[in-house]
């Protein structure tokens, strides 16, 4: 991998990429193909690449990992992988602090790419954090695997599931659950029109294909 420059015990890179999801990983790989020699670092809290668009599949069964690890994928490239949690970013000083194995290190950069993505807000609505399952990179009682276990335990007995949201992910979640557990009563709840993310034709097709209720809160 590329070797960084040491300045006053602070490693310096031409480009640091914050986040190793789809955007961050693609940015790192594309920059690594440039003819000029760039010192590139990709920083992510986990060495495991998360295929976020496949999280809904994990409600039904374990999703086989297609990328063994980020470090293995970047081995032999110009990109250095740093596994750690980003504690702070100082844009004026062009420094980022990373915590790894309980130790904090400071990294200097010339340019930074922010690709940390988004997380599900479970604090704004009372009860969500304690009672709602969510598609996120989490383990524990509210993770996708926990929901899968709950649905499997229920077997073919009638059960009611509410999905919150009306865009692609919510439609896919509802479809996965209804296909695997036909006796489940699935209700979609959205602040906008469910299935209208690609125009009226997709919305009409979504509503026609579904046999579960769709509730819209205007």
Explain what the structure shows.
This protein has 218 residues and is of the alpha/beta class. It has helices spanning 22-32, 70-74, 128-131, 144-154, 168-180, 200-209, and strands at residues 5-7, 10-18, 40-44, 79-83, 85-90, 95-100, 103-114, 159-164, 184-190, 214-216. The protein folds into two domains: 5-114, FAD/NAD(P)-binding domain, CATH 3.50.50.60; 128-216, no CATH class. It has six helices and ten strands.
List the helices and strands and how they pair.
Elements: E1 5-7, E2 10-18, H1 22-32, E3 40-44, H2 70-74, E4 79-83, E5 85-90, E6 95-100, E7 103-114, H3 128-131, H4 144-154, E8 159-164, H5 168-180, E9 184-190, H6 200-209, E10 214-216
Parallel strand pairs: 2-3, 2-7, 3-4, 8-9, 9-10
Antiparallel strand pairs: 1-2, 5-6, 6-7
Features:
three-stranded parallel beta sheet, alpha/beta, 2 domains, disordered N terminus, 218 residues
Number of domains: 2
For the sheet with most strands, the description reads: 7 strands, mixed
Strand content: 25-35%
Pattern of helices and strands: EEHEHEEEEHHEHEHE
Estimated radius of gyration: 21 Å
What spatial form do the alpha-carbon principal axes imply?
elongated
Mean pLDDT: 85
How many angstroms does the end-to-end distance come to? 53 Å
CATH class placement of the largest domain:
Alpha Beta
Give the helix level as a range of percent.
10-25%
Named CATH topology of the largest domain:
FAD/NAD(P)-binding domain
How many distinct beta strands? Answer: 10
- CATH architecture designation of the largest domain: 3-Layer(bba) Sandwich
């Amino acid at each position: 991998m590329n070797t960084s420059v040491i300045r006053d015990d602070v490693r310096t890179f031409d480009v640091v990429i914050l986040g190793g999801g789809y955007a961050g990983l693609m940015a790192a790989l594309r920059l690594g193909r440039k003819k000029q020699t760039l010192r590139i670092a990709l920083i992510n809290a986990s060495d495991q690449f998360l295929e976020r668009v496949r999280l809904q599949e994990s409600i039904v069964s374990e999703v086989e990992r297609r990328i063994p690890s980020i470090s293995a994928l970047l081995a032999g490239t110009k990109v250095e992988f740093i596994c750690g949690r980003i504690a702070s970013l100082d844009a004026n000083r062009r420094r980022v602090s990373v915590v790894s194995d309980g130790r904090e290190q400071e990294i200097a950069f010339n340019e930074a790419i922010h690709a940390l993505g988004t997380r599900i807000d479970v604090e704004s609505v009372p009860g969500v954090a304690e009672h709602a399952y969510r598609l996120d990179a989490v383990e524990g009682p509210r993770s996708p695997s926990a929901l899968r276990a709950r649905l499997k335990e229920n077997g073919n007995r009638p059960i009611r599931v509410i999905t919150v949201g009306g865009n692609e992910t919510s439609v896919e979640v509802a479809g996965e659950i209804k296909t695997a557990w036909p006796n489940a009563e699935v209700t979609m709840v959205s602040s906008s029109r469910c299935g209208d993310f690609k125009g009226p034709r997709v919305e009409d097709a979504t509503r026609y294909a579904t046999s579960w209720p769709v509730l819209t809160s205007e």
